[in-house]
Structure formats: structure tokens, C-alpha cells
Write a structure and sequence with these properties.
The complex is a heterotetramer.
Chain A: H1 2-5, E1 10-15, H2 19-28, E2 37-42, H3 50-58, E3 63-68, H4 79-97, E4 104-108, H5 114-131
Chain B: H1 2-14, E1 20-26, E2 33-38, E3 68-72, H2 74-85, E4 94-98, H3 107-114, E5 121-127, E6 130-135, E7 138-143, H4 144-147, H5 150-153, E8 165-166, H6 177-189, H7 192-204, H8 211-215, H9 240-254, H10 263-267, H11 275-289
Parallel strand pairs in B: 1-3, 3-4, 4-8
Antiparallel strand pairs in B: 1-2, 5-6, 6-7
Chain D: E1 4-7, H1 11-21, E2 23-30, E3 33-38, H2 46-49, H3 58-61, E4 65-74, E5 77-82, E6 90-95, H4 97-110, H5 117-124, E7 126-131, E8 157-162, E9 165-170, H6 173-181, E10 186-187, H7 190-206, H8 216-223, H9 227-234, H10 242-245, E11 253-260, E12 263-270, H11 290-309, H12 319-323, H13 330-335
Parallel strand pairs in D: 2-6, 6-7, 7-8
Antiparallel strand pairs in D: 1-9, 1-10, 2-3, 4-5, 4-12, 8-9, 11-12
Helix pairs in contact in D: 9-11
Classes of the chains: A alpha/beta, B alpha/beta, C alpha/beta, D alpha+beta.
Chain lengths: 145, 316, 457, 337
């Protein structure tokens, strides 16, 4: 009965210059995207520590979206290139230990790509909805809810 | 090999080329060796090289001031090179005494093979590909290849890649990659919730002694991120959740700098299969960025550099 | 230029290249290679005897190969400094080992074949990049002759032909036979606005200079007919549209909206075939001269320069400004400013505006004793830093440096510091630092973590 | 009360009977290691393979992580929810003499001027059934510390494995009361008794490792400032916390409050003097260098504890020697002073 009420709650770490601006554009262009996402603005995708992702999941968020500028477009020249390497292994490790890949999504969204932002969020939230609520970090005992 | 080591070590100390010799000495626990760090010539006689030299000594150069003559196996030499890349060790400050290594005996495996407690074993000799295990009144022969650490199966660089003095002739690699990756492959075949459950159980055992971190040559931080209290990412005491997150982040921190020496898993007093995480990362870093830890001391460390063509098919 | 060269606060280094830039805003260390011009600048009086008597003639780069120059030359009569340079590639002294005419004739004894490059290392407070542009090579267009027809020239070549100081002294003649053209075709957007063969962007100045050329042609050759093939007329500027209208109405330029499909030779004429999309018909023009408005492109070596300066560039090689609207002359590297077409195609007023802007930015920078910066910068807790220096590697601005300090007990200790004036606050160092000893002010782990906890509630 | 005995294959019945009133905790294999865990009601095969656990039984009384209480800011100040251990009675079955002694040693601290309610409640509600060692490990050196591997005064009941039988002996009154209520035990004959004596003697003789305690405290005091000694001794130490966490007598802990918004909890967890951050409050660990921390540990065990409580805080269980990744050996270090 809880399942019908459950709505995914996901967090998005968006870089200030591209993806955050892209999300802004989505709004100002009056495009809709799922309300399930809460956005945290960071200066650059290179600022994102894999710790943020794990911490979000540990605190019960159902998914984490990480988004930055397209390669070559980084406002800080190379932040997203460094981030890309980091994310590549992070994703592999999380998958290896058994975290559903749907829960952690990376994307490149430019400031002009309002529609893409909406699309990415929509697909991501749908993916999270499919894998269900995040119970990964719950203790067995407390699962009896 | 042992005699050559003693001879070279004595020479290095006598000529003042090094302040300390870091090698292996006889341990006080059966068949275990123990790091022997000395600046005295009379201690040199205690140096040993045998199939039980498990420790990765490359952690010491970052810690001990002065010039060191250090004994390394293939995998240890790569840790050392990685430390050179990370600016923690100056190449000129160390004299590397390389040990071509055929593999190191995992005493746990040995105990399983002989079906007896290690305390009952009196003597172990290596004869060719066999180990002759002498116990009270009985003798058992086990295949050397069956009792070495898992990491040794996949070892591509048994002879140190970086050395000043090589203490023996080169050993050809024992690349039994399949055997080495068997556990990882098997693990990947189980479904995600089961995999998660596995780690949950593993990290419920963790007592946060931080041996995994403290024995790891790649973990040289003055202050570990778990010890940061503003913000306190991870509590200093261990719930399995925090233990797991700690280890995952540690794994990411050492990714690309881990030479798969396996010290974390060997040291873990509660037997958490830590190497499985590390080895997985070694594979991924190799697959994604074609980078192997400590193979080239002039190569830029993998996570402070990038290529415009790095894989990104996972990014939408 | 002459005025600048006489200002005591301005030193002009021509025939020089920047080789290395390190340091940071207010403290740039720049290494400049002053190439050997083989003429002693201090001795030369600028009399001009040497290049008048030099026996070697080569096509002049400045005149876009519409005219010739000597192997010892000044690029154009008003060049600053008025000191010639020897072109080693063509000079007989270097190709054949003998000649020495210029040296013998020089009364000031300024010619020195043995002169070597001079390397200057100096400190500078700011850098303005104004390296200009290159022109698109139109020979990729087979339909315009692919570079085979002498009488298909670029707008800039026509500019040289019109110039009184140009190779023809201002007489407009066809390169092939020196005849005065009576029917001239202009083709706009050659390479620009063409993602297929050239570049998607608009070169921004061609509409206006083509109109100007049509006017000048008419003034020089009253019976000339100008035909202009265009895509749109982009005349967004003060009085620009009126000028274009005047070109059509008073100077009789025939504007044809459409593209040219083929140019071929018939006798001494060039036949230009194209479409008139407004009339909906094919047109064929018998032309004496065809002038291509070739695209403005980034300098061929702009990417190398960008790397030296530590500034970003776009996919076409133009340098990228800090912000397209709010910081159009700044770059992400503090203390490096942009002016002119090295940033994007610009016309003269825009270039002057940008240059003035950059100059004022520099002046404002130099006027203060302190520099005010965005507060979003990183700081290092050196007490817990383990000196792995990974942060130095990932910092795109070289904002993290090693320094040596003396402790109270007299021992020296190496540690890292962030140059706050150089840091842009991207935070790459923060996430790279495994021991979390770098903090980005205003975007600390703690702040982000609190945000996350609020989101998770 | 004399010796009782039970056939080893009858142990199941004995344990079942105990399980009626007590939670029986005994050695079992879990996740590849030996731990004390509640009895599954079936297996008694631990007699065949059990030597000792890696995590000492102190964890049953003083757990690695313990929530002490929770707090919540209500409308009228803070509400506190106490989290005392429940009053369930438990039997620790199979504790070794060295570890039983270790509990006696920790008792001195936790029941001294400060009486630790968490520890003491568990202690009071527990009954120790010891199991004497017939085959001590290579790393054991309890004999040097006046502990007999086969004998213990620190348990309530002591069992000795004599081939087919388990010899059972009540040591404390509590133990004697319990035994008198048990059915299914028979009296042991003199044959078993003498056999047990013999085994105890031989077990003690098997212990080869020694630690020299004569005049130790004097020696330690005069060696205290011998920096060179301690630097050399600690050179190979990796400064992890294994030795302290597997030590049956180490008892240092850290207390943390975890708050979020208006509620939180206070948690006590093990801490280790080997960590650079140990006692780093309010400023700095006074023992920043590794050798100072190592010296502190040994001095605490072999000098300060005897000074305060009259007994050395080491039982010779050998865990620290066995588990140390670099084989730092307490007998070597103490012996070298």
C-alpha cells in the first residue's frame, strides 16, 4: 500500500555554468520536468566528490543525478574532464557493490539545453521509479515498516 | 638471494649510501616474517628472503626520514613507484633492492591444504614447485601454486620494474588471470541485491581498527578523510553503513594508485574480503584508461590527468 | 602606431613571439623571443637604400600577394618601427652565400647577418591578447575555381588594390592582365555561415566591407558594374543600413540574393552562374573580376598561444571571454584580457571598443594597491596537507604553488599555498584532495553537506 | 563440591537445559571467523576446533559501539531516552582462562570510583563457563603472567576437556548453585580428576613464549626517557588499532554525540591509543609521534595499571602478536627493556 504512494526523491548536483543554467532555462521556457528532483548547485562538476553521491544514498535519497558542461565547454577549462574519469570508476564501483546503476546518473547538459535537461530528469526519475525506494542503507530491523 | 641481500645491505650501510635498511626479518609468529628496519650492521644478519615475505614495505619510505635501502617484491615496487609519482618518495632517497618473486604463501590457504593447525607445523621447505610441510611425525607435500595469495596468480610483474640492485634472476610472470579474477567474476554474476547484502554482512564485522588504511602504501594522508570532523562525513564509530561508505571512498581514493599488493585484506583481523574491491578497481582503471599503477614512474597519475577521448558512454 | 611608439610608457616589440607565461595577475613572468631581424635597430636610420637596391623580389604578404617585396624589406611604408628585416628564406646571402649588397650599401652599418635571437624575460602585470585573425582559404570551393583563376580574389586583396599605398598605387586592375575591370562580382559568405565546408558562424564584417568596396569601385571606375551575391544583408550597426541602401541606390550595386553555383573561364572573362532566389531564376554574369568575402578565422596558431596563456578557446580557435555578456574582454585567467578579432570576428568599432575596454580594465587593475576578487577561492590547511600535490596537477589556473617557510625553530618546511588572485573557485582541487585539506570558501563540503541533509529530510 | 562430568556427546542436552533460563553464548563460526554468538541449539562441535576468538569476550560486556541514550528537544526541554542493556541473563560458555582474567582486570576500572552502569549490568547478569586450554597457541604467554591455561579462578564454572568427557567444576558460589540445579551430570571419578590435572600441567608446560616481569616496573620507569629504544621498537608499527581492539583488557573509548535537528544520540565506541587522533581534544594528541603512543600503551599495561590497581593489564592471550600485520611482539618489546 505504501508503494502506490511512494514518489522517488532524488537530488541533482548541477554545475553552475552549464547544467544549472540549463535547468534554469527549462523553467523560464516553461518546460515541465518531474518535481522529484531537488537541485544543489556546485561551481563545477569537478567539484563533486563521490562522497556526495554516497552520502545522498546513505541518507535515503532514491537517486543522484550529476550533471556538468559538455567536454570542452567547461567554464573552468578541465573540471568536467577530471570529473569524467572520477565518475567512470565511481559508477563501476557502486555497481559492483550492488547499488542499482539506475540510481546514479551522469549527464552533460549545456546552458542552452533546456529541453535536454527536462528529458534527462524525466528519464532518470523514471529509472529510479522502476528500481523502487532506496532501502540500501536501511538496517534490517527497521525495514519492518 | 638472501646472502646477496645481506652483502649488498651491509655495503650500503657501510658506505653510508643509506641511513636505514628496510627488509624482512624472521618473525616471532610461526612462518611469518616481520619488517626489519635497521641502521646497524650487526642486524643485517637477521635479514631473510623466503616464500613468506608478505608485507609491503613500501609504506616505510614515506614515513622514515633519511635514505633507505628497501627490499621490494614486484608488487611492492609498483607501490613504491606510485609513491614517487605522488611526490611522497624521492627516487634519489631510496636504493631499491629488488626481489624477483614467485609468489608469497598465504598461510590461511596452507592451513586449509594440510588440514592441520599451523601451530603443529614444525618446518616448511620449498623444493621446486612443492612445499614440504613437516609436522609432528608426519610430512605433507603441497603444490606451491596452490597456497600462494590470490593476488600472485594474476601477477604480471613478479620481477620489480624499478630497482637499483636485483637480488636474483628475473622470474617469468605467472599470469593466471582467470584464476586471479575468478572470485570477482563469480561475484559479478550474482544479482545486485545479493551483492549488496554480501558487503553489508562483510562490513558488519568491521571494527574500524583502520589496519586496511594504515598498512596501505597508497594511504599516506596526514589526516584521513574519516578523521575530518567538520563536516563529519562518516562517524568515527562503526555502523555497517559508515564502515562500508568509508571503505568505498577509500577504494576510490586509492584507485589508480593501488598495486594490488593485498595488504589490506591480509591485515584485516576480521577477514573482510577487501581485495575484491581493490582488484576490481585495478581492472576498471586498466580497462577504462589503460593505466597500470606503478609501471611507469614518469607517467602522470591517472586521476590528476585526462584525455579528451576518455570513455563517456555512461554519461547521458 | 607611430604615436604609440613615441609614448615613453609603451614599448613595442615587433617581430617577436611570446614563448612562455607563468605567474599570475600582477606578476606574470613572460619570456619573449625577439627574433633576429639581421638589422641593428639602433644603427638603422630608415633610409631605405637597402630594400631599394635588394635584387630579390618575392610576393608581398602584406599585399596579400598582389604585389612584390624585397628580401630585405619593411612590410608596408608606415610600418613601425621603420627598420627593415631580412627574410632569410629568400635572401641570397642565405640561399647562395653571396650578395651582401645591402650590407655594402648601408652607411649606418646596420646590417648584421650574424645577429641572433634575443630572449627577453620580464615581469608584467597584465596581458592583452590582440592577435587578430586569419582568412579562410577559399580554394576548397571548387565552384569558385578552387584557386585556379587569377581574377578570383579575396576582399582583402581588393582592399590592397584600392589602397593608394598598395602595389598598384590605388589603380584597380585585374591580376591576370592588368586591365581595369568593368564588371565585378562579389560573393558573400565564402566559408562563413557554411557548416559543410567552412564555419557555421557569421564573419560579421563582410556585408559592410563589400558595400564599401562597391562604393569605392564606382568612385574609381565610374562605368563599373558591381554585382553582389548575398545570403542576407547584415547591417546591424549605426548608420550601416543606410550605407547599404546608398550603395544600391546611389552607386548602382546590384544585389542578388542567392548562391553562386559555378565560375568558369570564357576568353578573358569569368562566367559566374548563380541563382537569384528573389526572382526565382538562374543568372549568369560575365565578370572581369570576382571578389570573395572569405570568412574570418582564428589565427592558425591560436591554440598554442592559448595554452601558453592558460586561456580557453572555442571549437574554432577563437579565445573565449569570461562571460559573453558581463565580462566580454576578460578571460578566465585573471589578468589576461582580449581585444579584437582573436576573440570572434569583429569590425573596427567593436575592436576599438573591446581594446578600449581591455585598456581600461588594465588601467583599473593597476590603479589599486589591492585587488578585489570573488570570495569563492580555495584555501589549504597546510597542517594536514600531505604534499602529494595532486591539486597542483588538476588546477587549470596554476593557482596552487609550493612555497618554503621557516618555522619558529628555524627549520625550513615546504608547503602549498593558493594564490587567491588566480583561483577561480572551480573546486577541482577540493574533490581531488583525498584528505579534504583544501576547502572552497562559499562552497565548502560542510555547506554542500548541509544542503544535502536538508534535501534528504 | 567436587568434579562433575558429562559425556561430550551429551553436551547438547546440557546446553539445552542452560538455555531455558539463560541466553547461552558460545564460540561459533561466522563469516570466516570465530566469534561468541548465541547458541543455535544444535552444534557442539566447537570443542573440536575452538582455540580462541579474535575479538575478545570483552566485546560482550563492552561492545565496540554502544548507544548510551537518545535525546530529543521537546516543548519543555530535552527528553532523554535511556538505553540501558536489558536484564537478560546470559551464560558465556567456553571463555578461556586468560580472557576470564581480563574481565577481572577491566572490572577493576569499570567498578572503581566510576561505576559504569552499562558494563556492570551486563557483568552482573552473566555467568562465565570457562574452558581450559589443552593445546595453547604458539603465541600464548599466559603462564608468565601467572595464569594457568588449564585453571581459572575467574570463572563461575570451569570445564576441562578430557577425551570423551567434559569435566565440570564449580568455582564460584553462583556456579555451584547453578550446577546443583542441573540434571544429567554425573560425579567424576578420581581417574578423570587426575587426568585433568595432568592435562593442565602439560598445557602449562607447552607454553614456550615468555615475558620477563621481574623488576619490570622499575626498569620501565628508568627506560621511560629512552627515546631511542622506543623509536626503534615502534619503527615498524603501522599505527593501526588492531592490537588494542583485539586486546582483552584494552578498554579505551570515545564518546560522541550525533545530533541532527532537534534530536540525537550519545554513542560510546572503542578507541585506540595507537591512533594519532586519540585524546585529540580540545587541541592535540600529546603523543603525536608513533613511538610515544607505543610507549604509552605498554606503560599503561605494565606500569600504570599495576600502580593503580595492583595488576598488570595483560593476560598473555597473544592476540596482539598474532594479529599484528607487521608482527610487533609485546614479549620482545617488554623483554628488551
Amino acid at each position: 500500500m505504501e508503494e502506490t504512494k511512494w514518489e522517488p526523491k532524488v537530488v541533482g548536483f548541477l554545475c553552475h555554468w552549464c547544467s544549472y543554467a540549463g535547468a534554469d532555462l527549462t523553467g523560464s521556457a516553461r518546460m515541465e520536468y518531474p518535481h522529484n528532483i531537488r537541485i544543489i548547485r556546485v561551481p563545477c562538476s569537478g567539484r563533486i566528490d563521490p562522497m556526495f553521491i554516497l552520502r545522498a544514498l546513505q541518507n535515503g535519497l532514491d537517486g543522484v543525478l550529476v550533471s556538468g558542461c559538455h567536454p570542452g565547454d567547461c567554464h573552468y577549462q578541465s573540471g568536467n574532464f577530471h570529473a569524467r574519469r572520477k565518475f567512470a570508476v565511481t559508477r563501476k564501483l557502486l555497481e559492483y557493490v550492488g547499488i542499482e546503476p539506475e540510481r546514479v546518473q551522469f549527464s552533460w547538459v549545456a546552458a542552452s539545453e533546456g529541453p535536454k535537461m527536462a528529458q534527462v530528469v524525466k528519464e532518470f526519475v523514471e529509472g529510479v521509479r522502476k528500481v523502487g525506494p532506496n532501502r540500501l542503507f536501511k538496517d534490517e530491523i527497521k525495514d519492518g515498516e | 638471494m638472501e646472502n646477496k641481500l645481506k652483502e649488498e645491505a651491509r655495503k650500503l650501510l657501510k658506505e653510508g649510501k643509506v641511513d636505514y635498511i628496510v627488509g624482512y626479518g624472521k618473525g616471532t609468529v610461526k612462518f611469518r616474517t616481520s619488517p626489519l628496519i635497521t641502521n646497524k650492521e650487526e642486524d643485517i644478519e637477521g635479514l631473510v628472503i623466503n616464500p613468506f615475505i608478505a608485507n609491503n614495505l613500501s609504506r616505510y619510505p614515506a614515513e622514515i626520514k633519511g635514505k633507505l635501502g628497501i627490499v621490494v617484491k614486484g608488487c611492492d615496487s609498483r607501490s613504491l613507484v606510485s609513491l614517487i609519482q605522488d611526490n611522497k618518495v624521492k627516487r634519489d632517497d631510496i636504493v631499491i633492492l629488488g626481489v624477483p618473486c614467485e609468489g608469497v604463501v598465504d598461510i590461511k590457504k596452507l592451513v586449509e591444504q594440510i588440514g592441520a593447525d599451523i601451530d603443529q607445523v614444525k618446518e616448511i621447505d620449498k623444493e621446486g614447485d612443492n612445499l614440504i610441510v613437516k609436522m609432528d611425525g608426519s610430512k605433507k607435500t603441497v603444490l606451491f601454486g596452490d597456497v600462494i595469495f590470490d593476488k600472485c596468480f594474476g601477477c604480471e610483474y613478479p620481477t620489480p620494474l624499478e630497482y637499483d640492485i636485483l637480488l636474483g634472476s628475473e622470474v617469468s610472470p605467472r599470469v593466471e588471470l582467470e584464476k586471479s579474477l575468478k572470485k570477482i567474476k563469480e561475484f559479478e554474476d550474482i544479482n545486485a541485491p545479493e551483492r549488496w547484502r554480501y558487503w553489508k554482512e562483510q562490513f558488519s564485522k568491521c571494527i574500524r581498527c583502520y589496519a586496511c588504511r594504515n598498512v596501505c602504501p597508497a594511504c599516506f594522508c596526514e589526516r584521513c578523510f574519516v578523521d575530518v570532523n567538520i563536516p563529519q562525513w562518516i562517524t568515527t564509530y562503526g555502523s555497517w553503513q559508515d564502515n562500508l561508505v568509508f571503505q568505498l571512498i577509500r577504494t576510490l581514493h586509492v584507485a589508480g594508485r593501488c598495486s594490488d599488493c593485498g595488504e589490506c585484506e591480509r591485515s584485516c583481523p576480521v577477514g573482510i574480503t577487501l581485495r575484491s574491491l581493490q582488484r576490481k578497481m585495478v581492472e576498471e582503471v586498466k580497462g577504462l584508461f589503460n593505466y597500470e599503477t606503478g609501471v611507469d614512474k614518469d607517467a602522470p597519475p591517472v586521476f590528476t590527468h585526462y584525455e579528451a577521448t576518455d570513455p563517456e558512454e555512461f554519461i547521458k | 602606431m607611430v604615436e604609440s611608439s613615441q609614448n615613453e610608457n609603451i614599448e613595442i616589440l615587433t617581430y617577436s613571439e611570446v614563448e612562455e607565461v607563468s605567474g599570475y595577475i600582477g606578476n606574470f613572468d613572460v619570456r619573449i623571443r625577439k627574433k633576429a631581424r639581421l638589422v641593428d635597430m639602433k644603427k638603422c636610420t630608415g633610409c631605405g637604400t637597402c630594400y631599394q637596391k635588394c635584387p630579390v623580389k618575392v610576393p608581398s604578404e602584406f599585399d596579400m600577394e598582389t604585389g612584390m617585396r624585397k628580401a630585405i624589406y619593411i612590410p608596408f611604408p608606415q610600418a613601425v618601427p621603420n627598420v627593415p628585416v631580412i627574410d632569410k628564406v629568400n635572401c641570397r646571402m642565405f640561399t647562395k652565400g653571396k650578395c651582401q649588397i645591402c650590407q655594402k650599401l648601408c652607411q649606418a652599418e646596420a646590417v648584421d647577418y650574424e645577429q641572433e635571437d634575443e630572449v627577453i624575460e620580464d615581469k608584467f602585470g597584465a596581458i592583452v591578447v590582440a592577435t587578430g585573425y586569419d582568412l579562410f582559404d577559399a580554394s576548397v570551393y571548387g565552384e569558385y575555381g578552387g584557386g585556379r583563376f587569377k581574377d578570383v580574389i579575396s576582399g582583402l586583396q581588393l582592399e590592397r588594390l584600392i589602397s593608394p599605398a598598395g602595389p598598384t598605387g590605388g589603380h584597380i586592375v585585374r591580376p591576370s592582365d592588368g586591365k581595369e575591370p568593368k564588371n565585378v562580382v562579389f560573393i558573400q559568405c565564402v566559408g562563413s555561415r557554411d557548416p559543410e565546408k567552412g564555419f557555421p558562424y557569421c564573419s560579421s564584417v563582410c556585408c559592410m566591407y563589400t558595400a564599401k568596396h562597391a562604393v569605392l569601385l564606382k568612385e574609381h571606375i565610374p562605368d563599373v558594374q558591381t554585382n553582389i551575391f548575398y545570403m542576407d544583408i547584415r547591417s546591424a550597426g549605426k548608420n550601416y543600413e543606410q550605407f547599404v541602401q546608398r550603395t544600391m541606390e546611389q552607386y548602382g550595386a546590384l544585389y542578388i540574393r542567392g548562391r553562386v553555383s559555378k565560375i568558369y573561364q570564357r576568353g578573358d572573362k569569368l562566367i559566374v552562374k548563380g541563382a537569384d532566389t528573389l526572382a526565382g531564376s538562374q543568372v549568369e554574369v560575365e565578370a572581369d573580376l570576382v571578389v570573395l568575402a572569405t570568412a574570418i578565422t582564428a589565427r592558425h596558431d591560436s591554440k598554442e598561444l592559448a595554452k601558453i596563456l592558460g586561456i580557453p578557446y572555442d571549437q574554432f580557435g577563437f579565445f573565449t571571454e569570461l562571460h559573453p555578456k558581463l565580462a566580454p574582454v576578460e578571460t578566465v585567467t585573471s589578468g589576461v584580457f582580449l581585444a579584437g578579432a582573436c576573440q570572434s570576428p569583429k569590425d573596427i568599432p567593436d575592436t576599438v571598443a573591446a581594446a578600449s575596454g581591455a585598456a581600461v580594465k588594465v588601467a583599473a587593475l593597476f590603479s589599486g594597491d589591492f585587488l578585489s576578487m570573488e570570495p569563492l577561492v580555495s584555501t589549504i590547511d597546510t597542517s594536514v596537507c600531505s604534499m602529494c600535490k595532486a591539486c597542483i596537477e588538476v588546477c587549470p589556473y596554476k593557482a596552487i604553488q609550493e612555497e618554503e617557510i621557516t618555522l619558529r625553530d628555524g627549520t625550513k618546511k615546504k608547503q602549498l599555498k593558493v594564490l587567491e588572485s588566480v583561483c577561480h573557485g572551480c573546486g577541482a582541487c577540493v574533490s581531488t584532495c583525498r584528505s579534504s585539506c583544501i576547502m572552497l570558501k562559499g562552497m565548502t563540503d560542510e555547506q554542500i553537506f548541509e544542503e544535502l541533509m536538508a534535501v534528504a529530510q | 563440591m567436587g568434579y562433575k562430568k558429562i559425556k561430550k556427546d551429551q553436551l547438547n542436552t546440557f546446553l539445552s537445559e542452560l538455555s531455558k533460563d539463560y541466553t547461552v553464548v558460545l564460540p561459533s563460526r561466522s563469516g570466516g571467523q570465530v566469534v561468541f554468538a548465541p547458541w543455535d541449539g544444535k552444534n557442539t562441535d566447537f570443542l573440536d576446533w575452538y582455540k580462541n576468538t579474535i575479538i575478545p569476550p570483552k566485546a560482550l560486556f563492552f561492545p565496540p559501539v554502544e548507544e548510551m541514550f537518545r535525546f530529543r528537544k521537546g516543548e519543555e526541554g530535552y527528553e532523554i531516552e535511556e538505553l540501558m542493556p536489558d536484564k537478560r541473563q546470559q551464560i558465556i560458555f567456553g571463555i578461556r582462562p586468560c580472557d576470564a582474567r581480563a574481565l577481572k582486570i577491566i572490572d577493576m576500572l569499570f567498578a572503581d570510583t566510576y561505576k559504569d552502569p552499562y558494563y556492570l549490568r551486563r557483568r552482573e547478569n552473566s555467568l562465565l563457563v570457562g574452558l581450559s586450554c589443552n593445546e595453547p597457541c604458539d603465541t600464548c604467554f599466559c603462564a608468565s603472567l601467572d595464569i594457568s591455561p588449564g585453571q581459572s579462578e575467574d570463572v563461575d564454572i570451569l570445564c576441562t576437556d578430557v577425551s570423551d568427557n567434559l569435566l565440570i567444576e564449580a568455582i564460584s558460589e553462583k556456579g555451584s548453585n547453578l550446577l546443583s540445579e542441573m540434571s544429567g551430570l554425573s560425579d567424576a571419578g578420581s581417574e578423570e580428576e587426575s587426568k585433568a590435572k595432568e592435562m593442565r600441567k602439560s598445557a602449562k608446560e607447552k607454553i614456550a613464549r615468555q615475558i620477563n616481569l621481574s623488576g619490570l616496573q622499575e626498569k620501565m620507569r628508568s627506560n621511560f626517557e629512552n627515546r631511542e629504544y622506543w623509536e626503534k621498537a615502534s619503527k615498524k608499527c603501522m599505527a593501526c588499532g588492531i592490537c588494542t581492539y583485539v586486546c582483552p583488557t584494552c578498554h579505551c573509548f570515545d564518546i560522541n554525540d550525533e545530533n541532527r535537528k532537534k534530536e540525537g544520540k550519545r554513542v560510546r565506541s572503542w578507541d585506540s591509543c595507537k591512533f594519532p587522533l586519540f585524546t585529540r581534544m580540545p587541541m592535540e594528541n600529546p603523543r603525536h609521534e608513533k613511538w610515544r603512543r607505543m610507549r604509552q600503551r605498554y606503560h599503561h599495561k605494565f606500569e600504570y595499571y599495576p600502580m593503580n590497581f595492583g595488576t598488570i593489564a595483560c593476560t598473555g592471550c597473544g592476540r596482539c602478536i598474532r594479529e599484528c600485520p607487521v608482527n610487533v611482539d609485546v614479549t620482545e618489546i617488554i623483554g628488551g627493556i
